[in-house]
Amino acid sequence: MTENHCSRVLLSSILITLVGLLLTTPARAQQALRWGADPSGGAPYVFNDPNHPDQYIGYEKEMVDALAAAMGRKAEFVPSDWETLVSALQRGSFDVIVNGLEPTADRARQIQFSKPYYIFQLALTIRNDERQINSLADCRNRTVGTLGNTAASRLLQKEGVSFRGYADPVAAYRDLELKRIDAVLMDVPAEVFYVSKSATLKRAGEPFFRGTYNIGMRKGDDALKVQVDAAIDKIIRDGTLEQILRKWNLWNDAQAELQNPIRSGQQTGHLAYEITSASFNWREALWRLTRAAGVTVLIAFGSMFIALTLGMPLAVGQWKGPSWLQWFCTVYVEFFRGTPVLVQLLFLYFGLPAIGLAMPSWLTALVGLGLNYAAYESQVYRAALSAIPRGQWEASYSLGMSPLLAFRRIILPQAFRIALPPMTNDFVSLFKDTSTAYAISLWELATAYRELANASGQFLLLGVAVSLYYLAMSLPMAHLARRLERRLQRSQAIEAVESEQAA
Amino acid sequence: MIRANEIIKQANGTRILRGVSFEVTPRTVLGIIGASGSGKTTLLRCLNGLERIDGGTIEFDDLHLEAKLSRTEYARRVKELRRRVGTVFQHLNLFPHLTVLGNIVEAPVHVSHAARCEAETEAYNLLESVGLKHLAQRYPESLSGGEQQRVAIARALAMHPQLLLFDEPTSALDPKRTISLRSLLLSFVERGHTMVIVSHAIGFLIGLADHLLYMEGGEVVEQGTTDRILNSPSDPRTKDFVEQAE
Question: In this predicted complex, what is the ipTM?
Answer without folding.
Answer: 0.94
